[in-house]
Amino acid sequence: MKKKLILISAMTAFGSLALMPASANHHAKEGVSHETSLNAVIAHERRAEDKARDIFRHPAETVSFFGIKPSHTVVEYVPGGGWYSRVLAPYVAEKGKFIGLTFAPDPLPFGDEAKERIRGFPAKFPNDVAEWTGIPAAKFSAYTADKVPEEANGTADFVIIPRMMHNLMRWNLADSEIKVMRNMLKDGGMVGIIQHRAKDGTPFSYADGNKGYLRTDTVVKFMEAHGFELVKQSEVNANPKDTADYPKGVWTLPPRYAEGDTDKAKFTAIGESDRMTLLFKKLP
Residue 118 and residue 128: Cα distance in Å, rounded? Predict the structure, then answer.
């Protein structure tokens, strides 16, 4: 009797697998394939100098949470030194597309020399990515927010904004820049925001972006006002040791150490900032 029950259970399990829709099998295999591809990118030797920060930035978990796929057209907003570019560009280069987007230079509170460097971003950035990844520069595109070509609008599946919302807020650029990103997205396209997080209830005078920190409710309300819906949020980039109340702001923590050698061991033990990780969807 016992053997018969075991046999029936095995046949039932086999039958369930056999009856599983082909699309479910395909999606399961596709998910494994994406994960394998992402892990290979993150483990690559080109990221040798970047890996020390993985314990604070969690690239595999963050990209997976956002649902970025190798077939996506991905826009990275203000790539800076290329830390995320070295993950995203090779991840989507074969089947998708990677685009760098930076500030419209004229409204920035910068000098003429800095603005001129920003104007040179579209020509320079694809070559930087090619040097970082070994992939031809022709595979990549780059724009300033005031010079996005009409044909690029409505083409992006995903926009990622890593640790930049505070600058948009404090430099009064948020409204104009987020509109450019929204225009670049397809209907239903997604925006992933990683941002230094102020504690709930922190006075706006501290959490207005000038200290690098924003409250989560500030970011959510801003995005909702600009035609986005919060889909989900994650604690993957949380750091409960960050008190987020330093006189010199988030730059007190590594890697900047705004206080110099003062209490450096203390700030090293805290690590990088506590960060919100939010996923938004473009509404019609």
Answer: 14
CA distance 202 to 177: 25
Long-range contacts of 15-23 (CB under 8 A, 24+ apart): none
Instruction: Note if the bond before 105 is cis, omega within 30 degrees.
Output: no
Mean pLDDT of 222-229: 98
Beta-strand pair 275-282/228-234: antiparallel
Q: Residue 173: is its pLDDT beyond 70?
A: yes
Cα 84 from Cα 127, distance rounded (Å): 16
In sequence order, which ranges of 20-105 are alpha helices (DSSP H)?
22-43, 54-57, 59-66, 85-92
Q: Are 282 and 180 in contact (CB under 8 A)?
A: no
pTM for the complete prediction?
A: 0.88
DSSP 214: B
Count CB atoms within 10 A of the CB of residue 265. Answer: 7
How many other β-carbons are positioned within 10 Å of the β-carbon of residue 175? Answer: 11
The residues near 164 (Cβ < 8 Å, ≥ 6 apart) are 77, 78, 195
CB 129 within 8 A of CB 89: yes
Q: What is the mean pLDDT of residues 61-85?
A: 97
Which pLDDT score is estimated for 35?
A: 80
Question: Is the pLDDT assigned to residue 22 strictly greater than 60?
Answer: no
* 120 CB-near residues (< 8 Å, 6+ apart): none
Three-class secondary structure of residue 101 per DSSP: strand
Q: What are 233-264's pLDDT values in tens digits?
A: 999 999 999 999 999 999 999 999 999 999 99
Angle at 100 between CA 99 and CA 103, to 5 degrees: 140
